[in-house]
Amino acid sequence: MPFLGVDKLFKRRTEKSKAQEAQPKTDKQDDIRASPIRASWPRRFKILLMLKTTARFYTRLDCCVPISKDLIVKINRNVDSTEAATMEFLAANAPGVPVPRVYCAFVRRGRAYIAMERIQGASILAEYIKLESEDDRARLLAHLKSIMQELRSLLPPSPNRVESCIGGSLYDWRIAHSKSARFGPFGSVRRFHQWLRQDIREEELGDNLDSREKEKIVKMIARQDAEVWPAPVFTHGDLNPSNILAKDGQITGIIDWEFSGWYPSYWEYTSTYIRNYMRAWWQSLLPQFLDPYPEDLTMEATRDIWWGEI
Fold first, then answer.
1. With the C-alpha atoms ordered 59, 239, 229, 296, is the resulting torsion angle positive or negative?
2. Crossing angle for the helix pair 211-224 and 294-307, nearest 10 degrees?
3. Closest Cα partner for 31 from 195, 164, 140?
4. 274-294 residue pLDDT tens
5. Which Pfam families match (predicted)?
6. Distances (CA, A) of 118 to 100, 188, 247, 253, 266
7. What is the pLDDT of residues 245-279, one digit of tens each?
8. d(CA 202, CA 135)
9. pLDDT of residue 2
């Protein structure tokens, strides 16, 4: 059932509690936003000028605008400079993770501009299909696995917090009640879980819920509210095939880091699996480069039905 029908199936709250829930509950009153990166006046002028001139010779890719064979600019009202800070963080701390080099990043008239390296390569699935040898295919996925292992080896600044690489808010438009806004940070994995389900408690489940669905939600709540969770790990958050570029049997780049941050250890696997339900083949490849989390996948599948993407 869609997220919009949830309230009808749970016991009604007081008007006061509903008003409180309208605002995401975070652990900081003031969000931390990324600072400009190499945003000197000449660089900003160059990017703005090329968006007006050379960009017309290239095909726009959603919110990404190529301005030369080597540079692309990500620009949109939902683009946040935290994504540029993430790529800078990874370039400095995880050299084996191929991220685009940031040329400059700045905010102008309420919009973030991220000018970055235009990485060459095709979708990993296109490259995977092109490779004729099973050994070459295995090496391609092994390369991706080593990249993911390096990402997971990064040590979080806090053993409990769910947050961006700079300690600020996160973004994921697939979480329906975030309303395309940024959310968090959270002081613990448990607090993050509570926010994901809008602080619904077991005793608030309505009597008109199907008994099987109610049992699933009760199990989800019990698992989410476990006292002990592993420390968050650094997570891309959107590992669909088009965000992993490959060429000549090697991964050349991982792009679109807007959903990234320090998340529970299962988040990469479950979000990738659930969001690629139309790509069963890709789902079948996941265990070759991501640790599977079957219990958490069940938990997340239940949450996604009730509190997930509209």
1. positive
2. 120
3. 164
4. 999 889 999 999 999 999 999
5. APH
6. 7, 36, 14, 10, 30
7. 999 999 999 999 999 999 999 999 999 999 998 89
8. 50
9. 44
| Residues of the chain predicted below pLDDT 50 | 1-5, 12-25, 28-29
CB 307 within 8 A of CB 196: yes
Please answer whether residues 221 and 306 qualify as being in contact, where contact means their C-beta atoms are separated by less than 8 angstroms: no
Catalogue all structural domains in the chain, each as residue range(s) with its CATH number.
Answer: 3-30+120-307 (3.90.1200), 33-118 (3.30.200)
For residues 121-158, one letter each, b for 16 or more C-beta atoms within 10 angstroms of the residue's C-beta and e for the rest, the string is bbebbebbeebeeeeebeebbebbeebbebbeebeeee
Measured between alpha carbons, how far is 3 from 177 in angstroms, rounded to an integer?
A: 8
Rounded Cα distance between 237 and 254, Å, is: 12
Which string of DSSP letters, residue by residue, matches the chain?
Answer: --GGGHHHHBPPPPHHHHHHHTS---S-SS---PPPBS--HHHHHHHHHHHHTGGGGS--BTTEEE-SSSEEEEEETT--THHHHHHHHHHHH-TTS--PPEEEEEEETTEEEEEEE----EEHHHHHHH---HHHHHHHHHHHHHHHHHHHHSPPSSSS-BB-TTSS-B--TTSGGGTTS-B--BSSHHHHHHHHTTT--GGGB-TTS-HHHHHHHHHHHHHHT-S--PPPEEE-S---GGGEEEETTEEEEE---TT-EEE-TTHHHHHHHHHTTT-HHHHHHGGGTS---HHHHHHHHHHHHHHS--
